[in-house]
## 1
Amino acid sequence: MKNKKKLKKNILDLSESKPNLGLGVNIKKLDRNDNIIDTEIKPRIPNKKKIKSVRGSDSDRVNFTEDIASIWTNKNKGNSFKRKPSRKNITIVLTIIFLILILGASILGWMFFDNKEFSETGVLVEISGDEEIVSGQGYKYVIKYQNRESVKIKNLELRVNYPDGFHFITSNPYASTLSLGVWNLEDLKPGETGKIEIESQVIGEVDQELDLEAVLSYEPANFSSNFEAVADKKIKVVEKLMEFFLEAPDKIGNNNRVTYNVRYKNITKGPLDNFRIKMDYPDNFTILESEGDAKFLLNDTWSINKIKSEEEGILKIIGFFDLEKVSSSSIGAILEIKSLAIEIPLVGEENPNWRTYSTVIKDIGLSNVTASLKISINNDHQDLAIDWANELEYEIYYKNNTDEILEDVSIKVFMESEYLDWDTLEDDFTGFLDQAEFSILWDKRTIPSLDKLEPKQEGKIYFSIKVKEFSEEYIDKDNHVVNSRVELRNSNLKEDEKFIDSNILINKINGLIDFTTYARYYSESGEEIGSGPLPPIVGETTSYQIIWKVKPILNNLKDIYIRTILPPAVEWGEGVVLEGQDLVFNNDTKEIVWHVDSLEKNKETVAKFNVLLTADQTQVDKVATLNNMITLKAEDDYSKGKIIITNSYLTTDLSEDEKATGKSKVTDLDDLDSLE
């Protein structure tokens, strides 16, 4: 009995550990405290299995199979059996479950993502828009992109390559970079789409094809590599808005004066007012004048006014080449169209953004001529403005360019102008003067070497003549100019040549300017417009009014600048000019500048300002200077010449102010009594 009690105690101790399911314990349900309830115990007892005693090694070996079975089947009524798992075991179980869940999620992720196929062809890009266009008009192009892959795509960048002639205006959404051709886009899930709308102005020649290309780079969500999808759009120019031509000679000879005819025509069904013309001159070409339907803007730019459907226009540009530099040259006429982009123009400019629409280039070569023949005036073979009463010094250069002798050569100069004083003609070669024809002729009678001009032989003829003094009878005449050219004749010339021409010189005469400057203390009506003591007194300040008057005679003036500098004892007071003019005083340099943009002939403009004289002892009994030399510089709008006039300095000797007569010299206070 004693041994059996010990055995029972040991078996009960075993119940505190986890039941051995191998022994047949089946747990059907646990309560909230993890206690076993409604437990059915069905022991599995091996037929021949023996269990060792829990006693020491010296104990007897006994078969307790029946006792164990009795315990597990609750045959011992005095004992009850309930099991509660330990916290340690619960933690282990929860950890195992958590790891199983993570493993399951990884497997599912692999099944749903990594296991999805990426075909590399499921990302699509296309460009829609007009394929045939009219050059210069605006067009919209839409770039659509779509993800047909089974995975998301990321890091999307759309890059649009614009061909020449395709001008970006705006886009929706706006481009990501200043190049206006790159967009950074949102990620696209499977099945999602997007689009970019681009407003453009397309310019090209008829039948020209432009290739617009869109490249979409992206990265699939399950890849670390970049892929690209590409689309392109063929755009063909089928019509233009304007026709554009340039007429020019292919070659020039001694006569280097050239006229270019630029022609244009509106070939649309409506009016146009968005074009202008620019000229690209070679370095050795000088423009003289232009005329025609286009409006002059700058030396190389003309605006085309509103032009109706099927209407034509012409621009004539007249100029000359420098024969010393020209061998062959190219000149270009460029038709520009106003950009459709909305931009803020600069001051004085309608639209700063113009596009090249059409370009025509003409090559001009130098003809092979029998004889070189060139005329120059005052050492210049280009057109220059001249002044009334100027002396014109002529030089005529000639040379036999052939390998043959030129016989019986004659050279005649024509000076077509009524403003030359023929009485002042000086000609050491004593040519034959034909005053009615405005010409002088030299031949073998006056220059013996002209009888036979040897190959490569050259020579020069000099003479001079003056321009007439200006007379009021010339005021109502328009063209105050001297035109000069030379002809060479000889017996070797072919019948169709007759004579060889030289270059032509057109020397326009500058207009006159009535420029008067004076100082006053009293106005013409006798009122004081100055202040302070008169005559001026040492140490005290006297104010004078300075008057400058400008009146152009014959021609309009542009960019008129009149300057002077105040002496040390004189300070600036205040001044007044007409609206739109500038009268500026520089404190550092003591310079006064009066600027007038333009002035029509026979129109007078005036500037008035006060200066303050504070005389010192060094000026006692002297006439004080109020301002230094006065210089006028202006451009004659007709002759394009620069006019420079210098007037003398003004002093306290007020020659225009009769009331101030005798009060010009600086006086000391001690000498005032002597004036009474």
## 2
Amino acid sequence: MEKLVDLISTQVAQAFAQAGFDANYGRVTVSNRPDLCEYQCNGALAAAKQYKKAPMEIAEVVATQLAESQNFSRVEAIRPGFLNLTLSPLFLQSYLQQMAQSAHFGVPADTQPKTIIIDYGGPNVAKPLHIGHLRSAIIGESIKRIYRYFGNTVIGDIHMGDWGLQMGLIIAEVQERMPDLPYFADTHTGAYPDAAPFTISQLEEIYPTASAKAKVDETFAQKAHNATYQLQNGHPGYTALWKQIMNVSVADLKKNYANLDVEFDAWLGESDAQPYIASMLQMLQEKGLAKQSEGALVVDVSEPSDTKEVPPCILVKSVGAALYATTDLATLVQREKDFHPDKILYVVDKRKSLHFEQVFRVARKSGIIRPETRLQFLGFGTMNGKDGKPFKTREGGVMRLEALTKEITEFVAKKIAENQIVSQDCIDDTARLIAMAALKYGDLSNQATKDYIFDLDRFSAFEGNTGPYILYTIVRIKSILSKYDGDVSAARLVPASSQYEKDLMLILSRFSDFVQLAYRDSAPNVLCSYIYELAGAANKFYHETKILSEPDPEKKSGYIALIHLAKLVLETCIQLLGFSAPEKM
């Protein structure tokens, strides 16, 4: 289904051609003066130079060509040469009726659907999720859903930090605390225990303790390095213990991400890339790309077009340790083998931009990924407190993600109880849905690359540009529809009889414009902007129109069909953003 603006542009372009001018001047845009018209065309201004005529003369001739069209209720040529266009209510109603009856509201699927991997999440196992993981999870989940809306095969990969020295540190600390465990006995034969020797709470205490100890105890640090080396070389006991670390950590991660309504398709980590590192390093050296430099193995990734220095990408340090770049490149090898992707998008802190620029250049120079595969880095800004600094706990520490979601949910639950919005037995479920809307919309309504201020009071308000306001609009519409004395599914749109009705129709007709823009730019904030405008138009229409008491059955049916369509579009948008609405609030 064509976008409305494209349909109008086609007709105006034909009018330019019929008037003797180049049809390309007939491009139409949404009016930047909605008080004067709904759409506008500035083509006459551009055509004036080519045809050596006054812009107003051209605009008037084109307006004459459009005067008989039944798609417009008014066409005006305005000095110095603008074409102001107002749609006929019948044309708009017909378009919306078609939209309502079309799959995805007429939004066309991508003509060339792709296989896309989104790398988001990035937690380290054995460590609690904190607010630094929030933006990656929220932004990545929304982009994944938007990509799928257009028919793509999308794999959300959590890409866990599950290898390297942190594992050696944990193994060494567990051995000091529980030396009699079979994982550390060289003489052990047979199977290892099914149950882990620690809980997630204990594991989350073990790692920071071990990390701090290694900084002051050289003997312990060496023990951790040795455990890391032995793990990476297949030590059976350490491998079994590592699997227990993974089992306990992943179960906790899945629980916490589920509380955020975030789902990953691939629970892969750095360990999954390890088998590819040796052959990849060999290939890079054989191609003459990786070379020794002061004992380290590096790849020069600088290019003549660089306007600032891009340092070499270090793959192996002088002490023989592989780095994040090594693992990320090996992960690309693994992804190419397993998924053959057309695009890989990394949703990561923007401070990692240089790292990924280096990795992407090595991948392209070496042929690790195909030339047509697109690699994209979407760096996000930080979530700050009201003081403008990175958000902290009241004690000044890094806040755990579980604590943040609990704080928001309890805050919302208190407001619900005070205002007696829902019955006592529905408070918890309703509070969770509203809290997720507050948290996610508060984040996603900002451009991903920008830092933003986390303001709990503002984000959870039921008025203004907030998630709860969007939910309130949906719930209000649900309430009206539940009281309708007819069949909602049988209701049919009618031409608008008021400006409020037409304004709601106009913003609904632009759904395709916004969702396609969000898709093109990987920008959920575009959808947030759209649904805030849509919710505002729906509320104005509700306030100014006696929907249920309308005596004319056809008009009443039209009102119901219109708000039902608004509800469906709003629900689709919030689903793409990653949250949902309660039945009451």
## 3
Amino acid sequence: MTFRSRLMIAFGVVALAPLVVIAAGVRREMDQRLTAQDDRRAAALAAVAAADLSRRGASIGARLASLADALTDDNRFRLAVTQGDATQRAYVLDLAGRAMRLTGLSMLQIQDAAGRIVSSGHFRNEYDRLEPDLPALLAAAGGAALVRARTPDGPLLALARVDSVRLGGRTFALVGGEAVDSAFLARLAPGGDFSIGLSLPGESGIATATAARPNSHAVVVSRTSIPYIAAAAGGARSVQAATLTLSRSTAALDALRRSVDIWFVAAIAVTATIALAASTWLAARVSRPLRELAEQTSRVDLDRLDVDFSTDRDDEIGALSRLLGVMTRRLSATAVRERDAERRAAVGDLARQVNHDVKNGLAPIRHVLRHLAQVQRDEPARLAAVFAERRPTLDASVEYLDTLARNYARLSPRLDVAPCDANAVARAVAAGASLPRSAALVLELAEDLPPVRADALVLRRILENLVTNACDALDGRGGTVTIATARAEGSAQLTVRDTGSGMTRDQLNRAFDDFYTTKPGGTGLGLSIVRRLVADLGGAVRVDTEPGAGTSVSVTLPPNDHQPGPARPAERQ
């Protein structure tokens, strides 16, 4: 992520976070307060609706009581029902209808003690029909209850009550009520965003008195239970519970929330735009000099330390530019000193390596000359024969030194890689080896050894360094140095073992380091040269040693068909 992006994000967070928190807090507080206010209003309206329903029930009861008083004084009705005066039958049949209209009821029926209907105002043809359970159920309801009554136009749902009148020793029940329909519920509804609905057990609800706004969500505020005399299976009736539901529409509150949200979103968008513009302007002012400084810095390397960081700025970027200028000047001075030191170190390393390789090449010559001097002193007659016998060793050593000199003259010798007989190189090294007194050199060469892909000179240098190290490990004591060859996974392996003192774990860990030696007068280059030469050939080196048990160094070379690849590191065991 770029500095510009980070700056824009930081500006956005700083500018928008407080605004978002304020918006969320204001909206939450507004929502809670308006909801609480609506809940209190809804509770008050629910109480008003319940009280109104109770008053209507009481009003029905008062009208029935007034009707009962009127029937007590009605002599024609008394004669008809107590003495069976047939001339008054038409009067009795029409009595309930007249009384229903006078009292403003929607249903009214008069029943005798047996439950027989003697007069019905809402359905005249119900005369003489038995309905003995209705008065008892209304009385058991303890007040007004909802009932279903038959009319010529169909069933009528009414809020009914029961009263009674006693005439001539006989008791008559008066069942009357008002129709419960949309108009009835409308008189109960508080208006506004509130609506009232009635739900009967097992039936769909009656249409609400005040409909909620289109596509708005209605929330139930309260539910009131009303006794309902429902017909059950077989015609029997029972008192059940109907539900009067008061609901509130949330359309107005939802519209207010949407309006507040729109304003808050608009404020956030404007703030974000301003923050983006400000952060872009500031990022441009900051990032441009930094980008220019980065471009200058990218031109700095060890070969080019003359980059000019001079500036006339007096801010932090100017201080950074001046600091970079000081650093490049220091680096320039340090690079000069480092190159001097590297040249001196390279010359010293090269001198020590040349000294080490020349000594290895001179050792066979010294050994042959010492042998010839001994023969001249003890057996002069055999000098010519011995000279002829040892001459190949002298020629090979001189050729080795000559090739070595040519390679060092080029300073970076090119490997002359070709199929090479490792056994022949091992025999040449063994013939020119200079061993301590009481020491023996043993050759264990595999006859079926395949040719290896190597430079014969480099391979000889490897073996001569290993044999020299093995002889030094004998410390002038008696012992054995063994040069062995063997097959190893399709390639050749050359091993030089000695019966010397061996190495400790710490000595083994540093054995391949340049200039590390434990011998007085040693150069410490033997194994490090071996490691580099083996790496040049694409081979691997493994060292096995134990203190007091000698050392074995194995060099695994690639087969003749091997393609050069990355060298493996030396292994220690």
## 4
Amino acid sequence: MAENKTNNRTQKKRFRFGKNEHVWKFARIGGVNRVSLESGRDLVELESLDQKLWTALSCPVYGLEIDERTLELIDKNHDGRIRVPEILAAVKWAVASVKNPDDYLKSNEVLPLSAINDSTPEGKLLLDSARRILSNLGKPDATELSVAETSNTAAIFADTQFNGDGVITEESSSDESLKKIINDIIKCIGAADDLSGKQGVTQEQIDEFYRQCSAFSEWQGKAEADTSLILPYGEMTADAFEAFTRVKAKIEDYFLRCRLAEFDEESAVVLNALHGTYEAIKTKDIAASMGDISDLPIAKIEPGKALSLVKGVNPAWEEALSNFDKLVVQPKLSGKKSLSEEEWKQLASNFDAYQTWLAEKDGSAVESLGLESIRELLAGNTQEELSRLIAQDLELAEDTKNIMLVDQLARYYRDLYTLLNNYVTFCDFYSPDMEAIFQSGHLYIDQRRCDLCIRVNDMPKHDMMARSSGICLIYCNCTLRNQTEEKMTIVVALTDGDFDNIEVGRNALFYDKQGRDWDATIIKVLENPISIRQAFWSPYRRMAKFISTQIEKFAASKDKQVEESTLSKVEASGKQIEATSSGTAAAPVAPPPPFDIAKFVGIFAAISLALGAIGSVIVSILTGFLSLTWWKMPLAILGVMLCISGPSMLLAWLKLRKRNLTPVLDANGWAINARVSINIIFGKTLTSLASLPDNSRLNLKDPFAKKRNPFIPIIIALIIAALCALFLLWRFGYVQLPFTGA
């Protein structure tokens, strides 16, 4: 154990101080030291970068603004998440497949053939496959490939007989009989999609088709081996059994009722009491009431009575019983006009072996082909010929794999560096001219554009985790404005402006990265500080809202009192008028209470004392304020405002500098390894407020503005002037105020 530790320390020391040590560059972004991927060498050495320095350790494959097919190719275990080992494997293969790893930093849409590293056997195969793709596309002289071309397998394999995907189509054979069988397999068993875009069949589907054919032939052979037992009516057995099944339950019900009537003759009266049914349908159209009539017994119930096949039959069952008589009864009991219970049981037993045989039926998927055609197929060697075509197709599997690898390389050439900038480091998120792959579009609401919009994959997880982000978040249900009515949910960060008009139910407009516009409706709000400016005005807005609410409550209560008082007086007057008109004495109305002068004086004295106290406070404030020198007065006003708004601003500042996007991304399936901070300065770049364009002109004359009343400002100015004059007179001793004590 000690020796192993010593060897590990030696290896670490060699890595740190060896000649080939790679120098990583880091930048302080969002309060975290993040690695900078600035060269192809950084990609080559990515495996040596400590994973503790990666920003993310896992991300989802779906719901990001990057080609999902590229992410699916990286996700080798197909679990819907991309982890660090898969990233490293993709980078290792990608840098080995090109001559210069620096090319990946360009994120080019096209892959030049000259960029492929043909110095390795795998690289040579990639280059040959790339040229084959261009040749199949009719561009043999082209020198570059795009992702649209490498992924267009229908065009690449359109004129090829075999393509190595293990699927054969009609074009895989020139034999018309084999083409017909391939179409029969598609019709009976199902189809598989060929790389050419056409429908074909796989070896598994071929094997299943011939298994069904063999099973169906063997099943039919059992009936042919013992025709008299299994097919008691020969070729008409199926029709006879259908006619038998149609009336079986009704005839068994009839014989059971007759036996019950034989057990108790009085029960026959009850069993034949059909008057209730007749009463229900007598006023209806009888032809339209056959459903009700069919519920009645098939014939009249009598003790021990045989079932007549020709008369006295329920009209709703005449046709079915006649068909049963023709196909089942007459071939076995010729000339019979009625059927006893024993005879019925004998006829029913004729179908026992047939029913057992039906239950064993196999190969029904190919039954539509007909027994003769099926046995012709089984007699030949067509199954081996089809399997031989499959084998020929699979011989090209390696070539097809290389063609698919060309598509993978073209996608990595375009998308890999973008993924790394949003995985190893969040460079794209913090770059002012870039957007991260988790940013899905822009939301316009309340004269602002919000750029940090993220698709929501798991709403319950967001409910649990997003609250700890400290970000003001709104959740919106979005509906695409087209005939498909596609829907999604997004979470939007408000990082600038105010919160006054944001509430559940408001509508907005969302634009995704493809430029499509979605109708958005707010379904949930997580309120947190948005800006320092909002925090400054927040106390005043709360105070104004409180005063407005109290005034509304006071006005509502007074309105209710007036309404109740008026209604009570009207009701009392109505009672008096009613009493007068009826000649009865009206109840005496209670006289109003006498005026209490002592109470009125007390109230007036209390009001005077309150006004005196308020006046003393105002005078003290004015005295202190006017005693200041002129340049201290603005500072005093500023100090008062800071006392009111300061705590709110300080609390907002503490929260804003701690905003963290990590919980929001974690709720979406990411595994974030480093803090993703959104400070005040960066937050302003994520939300754009409305502003007038450059070189625009503004006409401040609003024709609908409220008309100003000049008397109100004049009165206010006179009151202020009078108070100032009174204060000066008191200050210099010309007057004495009773509440000053001087």
